[in-house]
Amino acid sequence: MQNKRIIFGLLYSENYFHLSRNFRLQKVGDIEWLQKNYAFNETCQYIDELAFFLVSRKHDKKEKLKFFKNINILRKKIFSPIMIGGGIQEFEDAKLCFENGADKIFINSEFENIDLINKISDTYGSQSISIVLDYRKVNTEYLVYTNCGSKKNNFNLTKNFLNLQNKNIGEIILHSIDQDGTGNGFDLDMFRNLNLSSKKPLLLMGGAGKPINIKEALNEKFISGVITANLFNFIGNTLKVTRELCKSSRIQIANLF
Amino acid sequence: MKEIAIIDYGAGNIASIVNSLEYLGRKVKILKEPSDTHYSHIILPGVGSFGKLSDNLKILNFDRYIIENLKKGSFFFGICVGMQLLFEQSEESPGKSGLGLLKGKFEKILPLKDRFLPLPHVGFSKTNNYNVKIFENLRSEAYFYFIHSYYLKKVPENVNYCTSEYGEKFVSFIEKDNIYASQFHPEKSHKTGLTLIENFLKL
User: Fold this and answer.
1) Domain locations in chain A?
2) Looking at the complex, does the CB of residue B15 fall below 8 Å from at least one CB of chain A?
3) Is the CA virtual torsion A227, A231, A233, A238 positive or negative?
4) Is this structure's pTM higher than 0.80?
5) Which ipTM was obtained for this model?
6) Could you give the C-alpha distances from B178 to A110, A211, B66, B183, in angstroms and in order?
7) Which of A 21-50 lie inside 8 A of B, CB atoms?
8) Domain A5-248 sits in which CATH superfamily?
9) Per residue of chain B (203 residues), what is the pLDDT tens digit?
């Protein structure tokens, strides 16, 4: 029996947490604002994992240090599993994430870098690596993009997804650029069209606007979890309500409270 | 006076355990090498591969340190691979050996009852508590966070234990004399996890 996961994501760039719509960022507030207005610590009791995404277009050292500083303040009173990523290009980048509280890291643009994946997995175990594939639908095909959605990958989504099945990684996150920030629900059309099933946990990201969107995605047998980074709709009590909705719909989900 | 130490042998995320202990108002010493100071409570974290962490433990002489301090009566808590290392072997790293304080071998998770379960096992799962004293003030169905690909299926002799289920039933917690160990991460398991850590520190 597998308990489905609801993961809350925070998008960070240059001192601010953001909303994202089709990968365009909109500033929401800084860490003080987040703690003050959004009962953040309480929200974290209702989630299976917390994810921090560094979404800055620049990845210099100074920006990373500020990112980690924010994480270290927020996680002082949070005892949930933590995933950190964004701009991981070499082993040292991943190591820094683990040293700053990550249980898992995610790799995005470098997902084809097998040496990097193997090196991280040798030290921290394959379970600690999540791969995020950003994709959009072009005509009838699902194409994968890297570098914040700007660079088209040589292979389509299905091909990349199948390639990842036997790599030293823990899970695969499919992130719809088209659905991102729309609030229209997760891209279940893609999931059904491609008829995906996976030996590793498969998660969807992009599109959650209300509790029912999460319920509908988790209702799919082969979807292990969802990530929402929607600061306005999914903070405070809403995640609790979402869990209760899932439970009453007989979706397997942990009793966290 | 309770003195708490965490063994730092390159096992991933010790920041979270330190964080949880500090939240509970405890001071903690991070040991980078064996120490002559007596610690009443010693924690062995474990994020990484069995083979690599087993090597590290031995290179840094923490294997002898743990055995000696258990004899001196320190309470000991192994987390995740820190639990696995108390046993003899793991299929993850053939040829590598654990401390052998408990008999048993960790096997690759093989969910025969549900072949569609993805691996690794990631997420919160419930523990069924049989006779574990340290769980006394927890709910009968306590949920903890798991992230692992190997598990202990055969219950060791003469231990108190909990089981959890992921396709198959496995041992998720053991308690024997002054040894305590969990396959799950209490430091990642919200209030339930903090209560368990606090229970351990009360010993």
Assistant:
1) 5-248
2) yes
3) positive
4) yes
5) 0.94
6) 45, 45, 12, 17
7) 45, 48
8) Aldolase class I (3.20.20.70)
9) 789 999 999 877 788 899 999 999 999 999 999 999 999 999 999 888 899 999 999 999 999 999 999 999 999 999 999 999 999 999 999 999 999 999 999 999 988 777 789 999 999 999 998 789 899 889 888 999 999 999 999 999 999 999 999 999 999 999 999 999 999 999 999 999 999 999 999 99
